[in-house]
Amino acid sequence: MAEQTLDDQPLLVAEDLGKNYGRLTACRDVSFALYPGEVLAVVGESGSGKSTLLQLLSAQLAPSAGRVSYRMRDGVLRDLAELGEAERRFLFRTDWGFVHQDPAQGLRMAVSAGANVGERLMAVGWNHYGRIRDTASSWLERVEIDTGRIDDAPKTYSGGMRQRLQIARNLVTEPRLVFMDEPTGGLDVSVQARLLDLMRNLVSELGLAAIVVTHDLAVARLLSHRVMVMKGGRVIETGLTDQVLDDPREPYTQLLVSSILPA
Amino acid sequence: MNAPTYNFAYLDEQTKRMIRRAILKAIAIPGYQVPFASREMPMPYGWGTGGVQVTAAILGPEDVLKVIDQGSDDTTNAISIRKFFGKTAGVATTTATSDATVIQTRHRIPEAALHGGQILVYQVPIPEPLRFLEPRETETRRMHALGEYGLMHVKLYEDIARFGHIATAYAYPVKVNARYVMDPSPTPKFDNPKMDNCPALQLFGAGREKRIYAIPPHTNVVSLDFEDHPFTRYRFDAPCALCGADDSYLDEIVTDDKGSRMFVCSDTDYCESRQLAGHRGSESAAPHKERAHG
């Protein structure tokens, strides 16, 4: 199978990635490879460069040093900085997803849930109302939103529903890579648990690769296969999730792990 | 011509040159919104400052001007603009669609078929069709540049989801020459098919928003729709009460406070010329003796 051979090659490769804002170094010397179907968590405290890194990886920011390459659907690994803007935006609408911490940033709050999910389909040329609506409603079901609310705007939704809608909106074009920025931030604990459960199922069902930025180690443990710990803009420790969280080597990681309140 | 207090057709020559350049660029890229240095005009924004500037820039001494407002030749806006150019350019004015060489319009395309050599100038309040879904101008320009028009269908989707059909009745988005999505100014969607393959040149001027765009003659103009919800024209299902026309766009006129109403052609020139030709509707008395004139 062609899929098999593709799976052996990395989907996204970061090499010596760095970003400076003037004299301030937001992140530097970040290198890793992400394979298809793999979930990578980036953890660290506020200001450690996690969000900057995510923006660099998703080509929303131009790096000051290093580069990011992505394997396109035709199997060719390409430097994101060399893609034209049209190609980059197309990638962002089709092969990638981006789940924001604040759903208001990722959704159109004033248009209905159905149109929110259908937007990406219409952007790639779907032109049949009935089919767009059917697809939207099946995705609402998959993210456990009552399909009776398909015509309601997300501003009438609860926080958890908004976040689930945002996920549906991103996954409708069957992307291969999803970026998530604190996907459970600002949600209460029971809603978080439900959302994490949903995301874990979707990621494994669809064979998604994902890069999850979070300060919540529980999210990292539940979702990710691998963890990267960042401090002061650098990656200080990386490894399999269980290994890093159960047996942290770096003092800072030990501090992070030990600062989790016992349940 | 009257005493030349003003330069011909009001604008100074440098301004005309600047606007003509914008118009030429607009014609070269059908449907593309060309920015221009819109001037202050002696009338408030929303009264056709964009259309007036375009008209002033293209008007020559030999031209015959017609101005319509919501189809009518004799409303305040139409009369004042017609008088304005009568005074500042001394051009002949008319109300007959077929006699005019330049027609400035607000909200309608005349019923009578336009012919080659005519120029239709639209007054445009909001030239950006994506505005209500994407408020950032930088972003909408990028979307135009990259041809990302999925958002336009989101608007139509919302219509169907809410009302069961595409309820956008005016300013209905069109795709020009298979490239740019364009707002045809607030004309009723009834008029959209008239823009397609029209032999006349169509120019659009938005004064406050400082944009000019154009549809050259015989250009392909398609109204956006869904396969299962195709574009449809809309008109009240009644004949005109004055001339009996059953193919024209109608205005609804409330005649008392008990629910009575009548429907009459919104295009007064079309209605009057039909009445002169002997057509009668249910409410017509004698044919109009006097026609609006400039």
Bin the helical content of chain B.
25-40%
State the end-to-end distance of chain B: 15 Å
Largest interface: A-B, 23 and 17 residues
Low-confidence stretches of chain A: none
Give the amount of beta strand of chain B, in percent.
Answer: 15-25%
H and E string of chain B = HEHEHEEEHHEEHEEEEEH
Biggest sheet of chain B: strands side by side, in what order?
1-9-8-5-4-2-3
Q: Specify the biggest β-sheet of chain B.
A: 7 strands, mixed
Low-confidence runs of chain B? none
Q: What's the assembly state of these chains?
A: heterodimer
What Rg of chain B do the Cα atoms give? 19 Å
The chain-level structural class of chain A is alpha/beta
Strand order of the largest sheet of chain A: 6-7-8-3-9-10
Shape of chain A: globular
Percent of sequence in beta strands of chain A: 15-25%
Give the number of helices of chain B.
7
**Helix/strand/pairing category of chain B:** alpha/beta
Mean pLDDT across every amino acid position of chain B: 92
Summarize the structure.
With 263 residues, chain A is of the alpha/beta class. Chain A is 40% helix and 24% strand. Chain B has helices spanning 13-28, 49-58, 76-88, 137-146, 150-163, 192-195, 268-276, and strands at 34-35, 64-69, 92-93, 102-106, 119-123, 174-176, 180-182, 201-206, 211-215, 221-223, 250-254, 261-265.
